[in-house]
Amino acid sequence: MSAEQPILAAQNLTRRYGGGILSRAPAVTAVDGVSLAVRAGQTLAIVGESGSGKSTVARMLVGLERPDLGSVTIDGRDMAALGYHARRQLGRTIQYVFQDPIASLNPRHSVARILDGTLRRLAGVAPAAARRDAMEALLALVGLPGDSLERYPHEFSGGQAQRIAIARALAAQARILVLDEPVSALDVSVQAQVLLLLDRLRTQLGLTYVFISHDLAVIEAVADTVLVMQAGRVVEEGPAAALFARPKTGYTRQLLDSAPRMEPGGGWLAPPARHA
Ligand SMILES: Nc1ncnc2c1ncn2[C@@H]1O[C@H](COP(=O)(O)OP(=O)(O)O)[C@@H](O)[C@H]1O
Ligand SMILES: [Mg+2]
């Protein structure tokens, strides 16, 4: 892989819903010709109002949904063109983290079972003892207490549950995380802690993020580049600092104007003053 080649790219992604002869609802073009590229170790943020197609892009990036048109490439390889095994191998390196952490975890499975299944099936760690060691290392990595393994998702706070979901993504040996509103469901003080964790993991493990949010204060804190979506299309994109300083479209300016701004010198990535 050359230094210039993006680790993740999408070309002309398009997705329509409904509108078939058996459907009463008119067709909705949820995503309309979206292209993007992310370099390894960078954070690409996708921002846009609710319904602008962010989650649909995310689901196509991680292979949860098939585009009607367009393609997704990881390390320059077109996912749809790969055979089953190659697609599985490469596909596990990109993982989805959902907005609602507790709902994204199986309530009947202990944390041990959640992580163990991923380590066994996706990462292919065969010896049980090695999986146990890996689970303990993952807990430490995401800052969860050592006794978390035998507990169940509902026993954790939202912030802790999101740490479990992140640990599960890392258990798959992900190199790219698609984080879909990962802190939107959390209290503000907890948001800051999870954002700090994500920032640390990115540096420590060399991860690449696609970070989706409707919250520009969060985007400003995490993004290297920003892609602005409206009604399924990209209306503006560029380096985060330039885009925030000089938004080109009225739509982006409106998003900025309606967003709560960070205090000078403060911001989400500064350690919270107190723990709530
Ligand atoms: N499974 C689906 N069936 C029908 N319409 C959908 C489906 N998923 C998303 N949509 C529609 O596609 C558009 C984009 O949705 P979504 O990608 O969830 O936007 P966002 O994440 O930006 O809020 C919306 O109009 C939404 O109603
Ligand atoms: Mg969404």
Detailed description of the structure:
The chain is of the alpha/beta class and 276 residues long. It folds into two domains: 1-93 and 176-276, Rossmann fold, CATH 3.40.50; 101-173, no CATH class. Helices cover 34% and strands 23% of the residues. It has nine helices and ten strands. It has helices at residues 54-61, 84-91, 111-121, 128-142, 158-171, 188-205, 216-222, 240-245, 250-257; strands at 8-17, 28-38, 43-48, 69-74, 77-78, 94-97, 176-180, 208-213, 225-230, 233-239. A six-stranded mixed beta sheet has the order 6-7-8-3-9-10, sandwiched between helices. The chain has a four-stranded antiparallel beta sheet with strand order 2-1-4-5, with helices on one face. Helix 6 (188-205) links the parallel strand 7 and strand 8. The longest helix is centred in the last third of the chain and has 18 residues, at 188-205. The chain starts with 7 loop residues before the first strand and ends in a 19-residue tail after the last helix. Mean pLDDT is 90; it is low at 263-276. The structure holds adenosine-5'-diphosphate (ADP) and magnesium ion.
TL;DR?
This protein has 276 residues and is an alpha/beta fold.
Text of the CATH class of the largest domain: Alpha Beta
**Small molecules in complex:** adenosine-5'-diphosphate, magnesium ion
CATH architecture of the largest domain: 3-Layer(aba) Sandwich
Strand order of the largest sheet: 6-7-8-3-9-10
Q: Identify low-pLDDT runs.
A: 263-276
> What's the gyration radius in Å?
19 Å
Q: Kindly, what is the distance between the CA atoms of the first and last residues, rounded to a whole number of angstroms?
A: 45 Å
Number of domains: 2
Q: Helices and strands: which structural class?
A: alpha/beta
Please report which band the strand proportion falls in: under 5%, 5-15%, 15-25%, 25-35%, 35-45% or over 45%. Answer: 15-25%
SSE ordering: EEEHEEHEHHHEHEHEEHH
